Amino acid sequence: DFMLHDVGTGDGIVQNGGAATRTKMRTPPLWGLRTRARFMHDLFNTTRFNSILRHTNEAEPVIQNFINLSTTQQNQILTFLNSL
Questions:
Q1: Predicted local confidence at residue 77, as pLDDT
Q2: How many angstroms separate the CA atoms of 82 and 80, rounded?
Q3: What is the pLDDT of residues 60-72, one digit of tens each?
Q4: Are 8 and 59 in contact (CB under 8 A)?
Q5: Residues with Cβ < 8 Å from 57, sequence gap 6 or more?
Q6: What is the DSSP secondary-structure string of 29-40?
Q7: The whole model's pTM is what?
């Protein structure tokens, strides 16, 4: 959505918006996700599953929803992400 979000992985760099943005990241679009081998702003994660679980703070409710899905449902989401 091109907005700033606190997902627990900010790098401390103040964004356009003042000191309160130092923990926030501008989330990139998911277009072309299937062509990426590493994820997150630090390229630490190599799987989509781990990248999803690594988000925290504002993303925590979404992560919990993902964790609560069945394995089949989680795989369906990962398959969809791999199609982008």
A1: 93
A2: 5
A3: 888 899 999 999 9
A4: yes
A5: 6, 7, 8, 23
A6: P-TTGGG-SSBS
A7: 0.63
Residue with tokens 């590493």: 38
Place of tokens 């679009």: 29
Q: Are 65 and 14 in contact (CB under 8 A)?
A: no
> Which contiguous run of DSSP H or E holds residue 68?
helix 60-68
Tokens of 25: 């990241």
**Dist. CA 37–CA 26, nearest whole Å:** 20
What are the tens digits of pLDDT across the range 21-47? 777 777 777 788 888 877 766 667 678
Q: Position 36: which residue type?
A: R
